[in-house]
Design brief:
Four copies of one chain form a homotetramer.
Chain A (H helix, E strand, L loop, with lengths): L32 H18 L5 H5 L9 H20 L10 H4 L24 H20 L1 H4 L5 H32 L20 E4 L2 E5 L15 E5 L2 E4 L5 H9 L11 H9 L8 E4 L2 E6 L2 E4 L11 H10 L7 H11 L11 E7 L25 E4 L16 E3 L8 E2 L3 E3 L1
Parallel strand pairs in A: 8-11
Antiparallel strand pairs in A: 1-4, 2-3, 4-12, 5-6, 6-7, 8-9, 9-10
Helix pairs in contact in A: 1-5, 1-7, 3-5, 3-7
Chain lengths: 428, 428, 428, 428
Amino acid sequence: MKNTQSIADETQSNESTPSLPDTVQLISSLSNISELTDVFLSTRQSSLTICQNLSAEDLQAQSMPDASPLKWHLAHTSWAFETFILKPHKNNYQVFDKDYEYLFNSYYNAVGQQFPRPQRGLLTRPDLSTIFQYRKYIDEQMLALLTSPNAHVINLTHQQLEQLVLLFINHEQQHQELMLTDLKHLLSINPTYPSVDYIETLTPSKNKQMLEIDAGLFSIGHNNETFYFDNEGPRHQFYVNAFRIATELVSNAEYLAFIEDNGYQTPDHWLSEAWQKINANNINHPLYWVKKENQWFEYTLSGLVPLNLHQPVKHISYFEANAFANWCDKRLPTEQEWEVAARNHGDQLQQLFNQLWQWTSSSYAAYPGFTPPPGAIGEYNGKFMVNQYVLRGGSIVTPAGHIRCSYRNFFYPDACWQYSGIRLAETI
Amino acid sequence: MKNTQSIADETQSNESTPSLPDTVQLISSLSNISELTDVFLSTRQSSLTICQNLSAEDLQAQSMPDASPLKWHLAHTSWAFETFILKPHKNNYQVFDKDYEYLFNSYYNAVGQQFPRPQRGLLTRPDLSTIFQYRKYIDEQMLALLTSPNAHVINLTHQQLEQLVLLFINHEQQHQELMLTDLKHLLSINPTYPSVDYIETLTPSKNKQMLEIDAGLFSIGHNNETFYFDNEGPRHQFYVNAFRIATELVSNAEYLAFIEDNGYQTPDHWLSEAWQKINANNINHPLYWVKKENQWFEYTLSGLVPLNLHQPVKHISYFEANAFANWCDKRLPTEQEWEVAARNHGDQLQQLFNQLWQWTSSSYAAYPGFTPPPGAIGEYNGKFMVNQYVLRGGSIVTPAGHIRCSYRNFFYPDACWQYSGIRLAETI
Amino acid sequence: MKNTQSIADETQSNESTPSLPDTVQLISSLSNISELTDVFLSTRQSSLTICQNLSAEDLQAQSMPDASPLKWHLAHTSWAFETFILKPHKNNYQVFDKDYEYLFNSYYNAVGQQFPRPQRGLLTRPDLSTIFQYRKYIDEQMLALLTSPNAHVINLTHQQLEQLVLLFINHEQQHQELMLTDLKHLLSINPTYPSVDYIETLTPSKNKQMLEIDAGLFSIGHNNETFYFDNEGPRHQFYVNAFRIATELVSNAEYLAFIEDNGYQTPDHWLSEAWQKINANNINHPLYWVKKENQWFEYTLSGLVPLNLHQPVKHISYFEANAFANWCDKRLPTEQEWEVAARNHGDQLQQLFNQLWQWTSSSYAAYPGFTPPPGAIGEYNGKFMVNQYVLRGGSIVTPAGHIRCSYRNFFYPDACWQYSGIRLAETI
Amino acid sequence: MKNTQSIADETQSNESTPSLPDTVQLISSLSNISELTDVFLSTRQSSLTICQNLSAEDLQAQSMPDASPLKWHLAHTSWAFETFILKPHKNNYQVFDKDYEYLFNSYYNAVGQQFPRPQRGLLTRPDLSTIFQYRKYIDEQMLALLTSPNAHVINLTHQQLEQLVLLFINHEQQHQELMLTDLKHLLSINPTYPSVDYIETLTPSKNKQMLEIDAGLFSIGHNNETFYFDNEGPRHQFYVNAFRIATELVSNAEYLAFIEDNGYQTPDHWLSEAWQKINANNINHPLYWVKKENQWFEYTLSGLVPLNLHQPVKHISYFEANAFANWCDKRLPTEQEWEVAARNHGDQLQQLFNQLWQWTSSSYAAYPGFTPPPGAIGEYNGKFMVNQYVLRGGSIVTPAGHIRCSYRNFFYPDACWQYSGIRLAETI
């Protein structure tokens, strides 16, 4: 990793060197271990900040198998530091509680069996105060490790340690986003529409254009200068045909026009599997939309609010994004098209980062030459590479500095509890 | 209702007048309204006592659709006083929160729609402290009503008021039992086997006999002297053929012999539907039994303890009780046989009341002449009279004074999270 | 078994000696083995007659797990003679095909494993012509046994042989009824409403009265004079309270009034479990009713015909029967009430036998003193005694001579593909 | 379409011009309409030939929702000619039976509603002989159209007619393959392992090499010279990195080694979703493998035969193919790699065509610039482009002449009832 904040490195023909939006501040390769320690501590604090005004009950409940209780997220992110750093690499480390190895393992078969995911909301013990103690204990142990590595670290170079710590800082940031989306889903089920005073404001869409981008052979994937997840590499050549991409995201107004044109009742627009799903589940509007007395509202983390037509439409599934695109004779971009556009024409595109995740038409798959690392860490990404679709760009609940051009998020095509929206594309 | 503690009233030929065990203290017709007020307050307090050492999270989680969160029980029992007494019958009553009508309605269609039962564990709002305030508010309002009825009661005689209050005191007692069985089920899912320091000790079985009882025409059903639920009447004549009934409950030792004789692997013993269920769900021992290193343990509210062979076997489904009875060439008693034996030969039978609910072979059905009362209260019992089986006698977690000879509990034949056991019978 | 065609035998106080309707011709204890042979042959022929105008495909398909293909019925009824009579009791018997032991075993665990019931429709081999050969082979072998028992029978007295043969003649008759109801269900799924030219005509209801019957102690169960299934005994005393019973079945006109009074939309009428089922499955009329251009039709074995308002309503589930009864402030009779009325007042009741099975409010359970015979035959009835409800009286597709006063049919409370109707009762 | 039998057309840098295996005889653009008529008639006859020794029952049953009854295939392929050619384009065409529009529509929403797919096996009417008449009628009508188009064709040029006929000839060929795979699945459920005397012999694998192929920019997709489906185009540029591809398919011996190395018990090899599926369904060997007395057998269309270790392993799901590849540190090829290798190095690769479909790692998606044609025919392929994976190469049950280099078959990743196998690849 090189010491630079820039993600633009391309030297190939069709790529300029755009400046990235200010909102994207990367946790990049850090100048020294004390800087890393600061980031560690502030990241750990951020998880607690999310829970600040929530009750123990809010942190306990699990609204669906795909979501987890916030208390579980608090424990699991600590478990990750304990399992992958402290246990194997801290001299004489004493585990906080040996049961946690099982209770808070998400999906690492190489670590051992896992408590069944759909039942995480039933783990009322350990209670919240014990989990807070657990976090404190892990923070202290990590601090000892980071502040006097020579005295404590075993079986690991300092550089390897830094890389591991950086990985699990990023891991905790991923869970911070999930904490907010899981919380929103949980509260949305409550018929009283609770508010946690988190205003969801996005940059409005106001003047959408289709930006033309020429064909060419491009480098795709991380550029090695900043932190990245294994699935973002290896960097490789990819030929992209000429295409156009929308400069803005699809707005609530545009999506409403689709609904009012019987979009959810017209099979032509929908993938066959999507058509079955929306009919089986009586879906005829985005997840959090609510119609009351002929007026559309939207459930948000600040409660039920009137639908703002200028805002980008959010909480859209891949199925819905694809149907909407068909309806207006466009399509979704591939993830390579998105990356080429963002990297080289980012200044002409609005709402690229930290607004809404943008569905691409790319099934989540290994890049050419990708091999997961050996051991448990190899389970981080690789084993999910089937039947999911890639989203790019990050959302308003993605932690600042967590996102970059090469970042690949992925969800099943019917998932819609993330802050996901639509950027259109078309073939020239 | 007459003022008497005795449940024995029969004057018919084949019935003696036995004295009932001391443990059965009935909430009977109370001498005056101040006595009723005391019972009201102590019953309300008992619900809180159950929650004493539990966390907000313990009270939030719901382990299965059949169970409810303890917080929900706390709210619903208050809702019942509010809905059936305060709202219609207290002058100028102001509801605590209008949303509760929907949130805490269990199954009363006549009151309105209900929040879906399987999602009760997702109602993190109102939080626990708000529910405690709700309970306090209801208690104060009820106290005002009871201490100066003339000033407050509308559309109701004092006697009707007393009957209604008595009904919902009994209703809250039923929920107290469910709070403990639902809690046990929830905690049992936690792989750390949490203890809440509640020791489950039953009278041991040590000298089981089969007591012979002659045929005859008996009066079945409540005797009108104490409080009773509508399903316990009307009292009616029933001809019972000669039979024998066990003086004690089946012990863990006896049940273990059934297991070791491949009871769960031998289809002959099982009802066809039971055989499908135990195979589909890999059931081969009672719900809370755990085998560790070839030794049997049992999960209890005081944690995991070695199986005590002399104790009655508990948490048995109807399917298991029936299979066990077949295995030893006996059968379960009908509910009429149970009632006749308990009423007339109770002193010769051990573990009759407040030990374990005892499955009978009787499908839960209306007694001859039964008609549910009109309105929402008519939904209390009648609409459940299909596909469930009657249990008699009460368990160690049934509130003292809640049980009587004519009491009919009922559950689906695969249910086993109640404290249910086996008393055998046979035809002569 | 005595040689008599009469099922009326009671000599007890409250019973008169009614004459039974002509339609009830019993296969009773037969005077000699040659008479039995005739009945055997004609019963076997009847199964073939049912299939007369059906294609191999009609006999192959299985419309739901509860139903079986007609080809399977043809094979299974032959399998029963082979398994329970020929194999154990015919000297040097050679099985037709050893695979059939597994393929055509319905549910007899004592015989061995069974081919999974929901997949019976996938057994395209053996094909129909092979099954016809199988039937011929079994008939020949049985004929040899019956015509010269001395030469062929082993391990069985002649009387035992006769009883076994009689049992499996009755078994085949039961399957003949199922063949017709399973066929109707299968064809009803075909959107072309096929006809097999079987006119379903019942005696119309025209002047329903409520007949009063006094309380008393009655003998319930078979009277030993004719063939009976084990579940019809032992005969025992039962006290019946005074009641009234309808002289006729509920008509389509009456049931239509229930529908038009929003019967299916009013939760008060329905058992809680029924309410869930009809809502989950969008049920709002009897199984085979079809509304076309605001007109009610009914699918029958002679195709789609306009609903005849005077005919008894048929294909009603227990849930529907119970809801209808609640709607008109009546109830269903218990099976004992039905039997007492039919036995003693049969001449005042219309449509008692061979019209429609009549739901009773009695859960299917063992009579006092009932024990299933040992071995596989003990699985015939006993293991189904849970969660099903008793029907009495027989239907138009019940073979002539198969029915009697003590006959107990039983189905799950949501079953409606049998010819089942409603006879009302009420408590005095 | 040009008049040529060759599929090799490339003129680009990295492509040689290989000769294709003899077995690949394409239904290409035909020289004249009489040639087309011959192909039409022989294709129609082939469907009947498949059914030659099967009973009406074999053609009726449907073993799972993904499969269809063979009778349904016979009808549906005729329905396709009727719906897309005869009805709109034959002057004064009289439909054979108006109900068929609904009964035999597979999934064309633009044509109208469809009879529910999982219930196709319940359509016993029309019976087999009627479907044979239907086929005859369609053949006669098509023949009239083809032999004197001037007299009969409306709203269509002759060239358009030829293209449509060619499309539905290919459509019928696709169904011929499904008839055999659906038949095998159906018969495999029968515990008697029926044979239809169809020997499944493949070219053995004996000397597998990894062939190295250089990186380059290649043309992917049909070359316009022969018939192709819309999903095979448009032809476009694709950059392929250097890779190696196996010259032979994975053999039963190799796959057995995977099994014996606990391949099905080791989570590391499996995608997360695959691991859940194989555990939930107790899968631990290929679909049709059977172990008897410690010996492996395989169910085939000629019955149960000992597993031949030299033959390629078949009936493998994508999940299994992927796990096997992981186990031996290889991977599956992308569909572009497969096409490049087949087109340019086909002579060095064994078992390319008409042996087994070969899973690729490519999720089934639109090629750049793909847009489905308008109307019902647009539903042929496009709406299935999600969550399925591409297979290439064709199988022994693919009709001769139906396959080509650019052909894209696709199935869900857990599907294994097709003749699907494994060709490995690796990154250099």
